[in-house]
Design brief:
Layout lengths: L9 E7 L9 H12 L3 E8 L3 H13 L5 E5 L10 H8 L2 E2 L1 H15 L9 E5 L2 E6 L3 H15 L24
Parallel strand pairs: 1-2, 1-3, 3-6
Antiparallel strand pairs: 4-5, 5-6
Helix pairs in contact: 1-5, 2-3, 4-5
Length: about 180
């Protein structure tokens, strides 16, 4: 098999929080540092309130933006009443990547044991854009990036990866 060239993708980062600003957004900083270290491009970065409609509207806007290939959100995936990020993501998804949450749970179990059951990390696709919702902890962001996303967002990763199927994500919209 021939060696493939790396293909950088454009990734937007959304921190969901009622209290954080850029000066104390450690999870957002962690994701940005890893995205850039891997050779990808930061397409945009925002902090939005824990409001389902606000989150969903921003996700939709990014899925319509040709300069954004992937969106990673952090925060709002827990079980409390204010945690609505997962619901907002699912409002936008055309298809859910069910195994993302499962694999994230497996990775988390190795680090935090049965406390991993409290995470509702999720992934999906909308308008040819990948969307991932991660917990708000820096540890969870590190785990999701280092163990899953850095590989799946690398065109060189075998036997398969998310990048190689980008051109076919929205093929159903081109059918006549």
């Amino acid at each position: 098999m021939t060696e493939r060239d790396f293909i950088p993708v454009r990734i937007a980062v959304m921190t969901v929080s009622d209290t954080r600003g850029f000066e104390d957004d450690r999870s957002g900083d962690t994701l940005v540092a890893r995205i850039e270290a891997a050779g990808h491009h930061l397409a945009d970065r925002l902090i939005v309130k824990d409001e389902r409609a606000v989150i969903a509207d921003q996700l939709r806007a990014w899925t319509m933006d040709p300069e954004v290939d992937v969106v990673i959100s952090t925060g709002g995936t827990g079980l409390t009443g204010r945690d609505v990020t997962v619901e907002a993501h699912r409002d936008v998804y055309e298809k859910e990547i069910d195994a993302f949450g499962t694999v994230f749970t497996i990775v988390s179990m190795q680090k935090i044991g049965t406390s991993a059951v409290q995470s509702r990390a999720t992934g999906g696709v909308a308008n040819g854009t990948y969307l991932f919702a991660l917990p708000g902890s820096t540890g969870a962001c590190k785990d999701a990036w280092d163990e899953i996303l850095v590989h799946q967002l690398d065109y060189r990763h075998s036997p398969c990866n998310f990048v190689e199927i980008f051109p076919r994500l929205d093929e159903h919209k081109r059918r006549k």
